[in-house]
Every structure is written in structure tokens, then in C-alpha cells.
Amino acid sequence: MFGKYALVLTLPLLVAAAGGRPGRPAPAPAAAHVASRIFARRSVATPPQLGAAVNTVMLDSANPRYVDTLLHHYGSVTPEYEMEMSQLEPRRGAFDFTNADRIVAFAARHGLPVRGHTLVWDEMIPAWVTHREWTKPQLERMLHGYIQTVVSHYRGRVSEWDVVNEPLTTDGRLRRNLWERVIGPGYIALAFRWAHRADPQATLFLNEYGAEWQDAKERALHRLVGGLRAAHVPVSGVGFQAHLSLSAHPPQAELTAVLRSFAQLGVHIEVTELDVQAAGSAPLAQRLAAEARIYAAVGAACHAVAACSRVTTWGVTDADSWLGRNQVGLPFAADYRAKPAWWALRAAVNPRA
Ligand code: XIL
What we know:
Blueprint (H helix, E strand, L loop, with lengths): L4 E3 L3 H7 L10 H11 L10 E6 L1 H5 L3 H10 L2 E4 L5 H4 L9 H12 L5 E6 L6 H4 L5 H18 L6 E6 L8 E2 L2 H6 L3 H12 L4 E6 L7 H15 L6 E4 L2 E3 L6 H12 L4 E10 L6 H21 L3 E6 L26 H10 L4
This protein binds (3S,4R)-3-hydroxy-2-oxopiperidin-4-yl beta-D-xylopyranoside.
């Protein structure tokens, strides 16, 4: 998640890099047409769906409590790491879909939509990619082939993809990751175009963390997505990871305003990786109550914005959280009891429940 940066993000640069007409955004009707064609907005009467990141370790544990909790409370899944590049192509040309296929098959058995995560990221890149030099044409050819192979493999079984993950730094500059350093800022537009060509029906997301506040990173993300769509790049969704904590979480009104401002770009909105770090010295009950208030604020913000269709928590129980059990960051306790966070999230996304 932590890389260097150098480029100041400018719209003309991005539009040019995206292969669009430099400096002259496309007329809105084209973009609006693309938006209306790509997805139907949730009606406010229909609450946002709740999803969870799952992994094969938990599914293989054959723990009936895990599967029961997942199926009873959630309506979609995201493979936590099984679809990362290091998992799918550990050696050049040697694709291994085994584990990701097991999650996709589990989801299909239970009628759950799958969020593909993630095609282009600065983490979990296999050594055969990072331990060599690449020319721009070589890396473009490699990434094009990777995206084409993966998205085609899951065509019709994965309804949406996090195509590019975490492209920005905290102060809103384009992260100098491998893809940007070698291919240039246009890697983002290319990745979306390749993914769209491989599966024109999939909803394609740009996924970012730390953009839940109205600050430089959020403004840069808004410029990035607006510029890409102005260049007719098929970005049809924005994912807000929402890895929050008791000390770092946006006020509900601010998050609602952020989600609404992105909805005005004509994109689908999702909260894609919600968890709330709640470790600390205060009494547990006090921390869990504070955590529940944050879950409620996120759920209410998504419910208030019709374009926000889903809140995904990054795991099910504290025992299987990437944060570690002591952060008690998820809606269910390690013993599968629903925490205050779960009841607060559920009530917030569906006040009529
Ligand atoms: C994390 C997973 O939870 C870990 O199991 C894995 O080892 C590394 O990635 N932002 C993201 C996710 O987009 O892919 C990360 O997931 C958490 C931060």
C-alpha cells in the first residue's frame, strides 16, 4: 500500500494518456449515455446489499458457523486474496485458478454475486514480475495478456472487478507503482479498456482507500475518475475501501457528501472493504459501542446515496480479519456472536428492517 510518487495529477495529462482528446473532455451526453447503459441505480426503497470478503482458509475450515453466518447475513462475496496476481499467475504463463475457482463455485452454489479483486495493484505482484526490468511495450503486453486471461476466465461468473486498486498517494498524487513507472499514467485507462473488452457486461471499479473524507486525496480521485470518464474510459464504479478506526473515521455527513459527489459522475458506488480498528485501553463495551456508531454512519451514508449499492466488510468475524483478532474490527465476534457493529450496520442500510 505504500509507494513513492512523483506526478502531479492533471486532467489533460490523464485524458491524453487515456488515449482521449487531450484537454477537451467529451460532451456530457456521451458520458451520461455510458453511465445509464452500464447500470441501473438502486432505488432508495431498495437497501444497499451487504457483502463480505471470504477466503479459502475459512471456507475449507468447514466450520458450519462460518458458512451459516456468511450465508445468513451476507448477499455477496469478494475473494480476500485468491484473485491477486501473485495467486493467479505465480509463475509466468502458469495460471492457477484453483482457489479463486473454489470461491466462485461456492458463490454460484449459493446464488451470491462475486466481486473480483483486484487486477492491477502495487502489492501481491509475483516475483517473476518484480524481479526483472521491463520495457513499456513488454509490460503493456504482459498486463494486457494477464487481464484478458483472468477476466475472460471469469466472464459471466464475476459481475464486477476492482480493475485498478489504490492508484493514489495520501496527498492525491499518482502512486509511482511499477505500472506507472514503466507504462506511465495511461496504465489506468488501458487496464479498464482491456477489462471491458474481455467482459463488456462486468461493472468495472476503481478502488481506493483513504478517500472517505473531503480532502486532497478525495479531490484527486474525483478528478481522476471524471477525467477518465470524460475520455470515454469504461470506469463504471468507484470503490471506497473504508478501512477505518476509532480515531480515524469520517463524520456521516462528510462521507455522504463524498459518495454523493462521486455519484454525480454517473458511477456506481460501493463501500468495498469496511472494517474499524477498535483496539485500545478503554473498556471493550465502550470501544464496541463507538465502533457500532462508525458502522452505522457508513451504512447510513451508503443508504442515503442511491448510487451506493453495497457495503462489503473485509471479512466476517474478528478471528478471520486481516487486522488481527485484537483489533475487533469486524461485525461478528470470533465466537460468531453478532456485535453491536452488525446490528448498527444492518439498521443503517435498511431502516425498514
Ligand atoms: C489484504 C488481505 O486481507 C490479506 O489477506 C492479504 O495478505 C493482503 O491484502 N486493501 C486491499 C486489499 O485492497 O486487497 C487488502 O487485503 C487490504 C487493503
